[in-house]
Amino acid sequence: MEIGKRIKKIRNDKSMKQEEFGALIGSNRSVISRLESGRQQIDQEILMKFWTTLRVSPHWLITGEDPGGVAEVAKLKSDLKETKRTLSLVEAHRDSLTEIIQLLKDAAGVNKQ
Known about the structure:
Largest sheet: none
Order of helices and strands: HHHHHHH
Number of domains: 2
Mean pLDDT: 84
Distance between the termini: 69 Å
Number of strands: 0
Structural class: mainly alpha
Radius of gyration: 25 Å
Shape: rod-shaped
CATH architecture of the largest domain: Orthogonal Bundle
Strand content: under 5%
Low-confidence stretches: none
């Protein structure tokens, strides 16, 4: 798939018209039309707008190859943030959790002989 088709795919995935999509990346309908049709080559400024506005990898946009980085890194960062938050909650309530676990064990008869 060439660059123009990838641009069109991104736009279609967002259910946007060329005019709306152009405004989103600080351009206009005619530029989007020329990019999608291959009549205009993508420049560095537009590549950066795709990255900063839409988080579309310039590498993928140019080559079509997924570097396995952008979406994966964002997900890992999100997962790490959530894990840190959960751990801080567990640490803050360690004594309460121990007490609750013991109460549950006692209620279930786990520690009874």
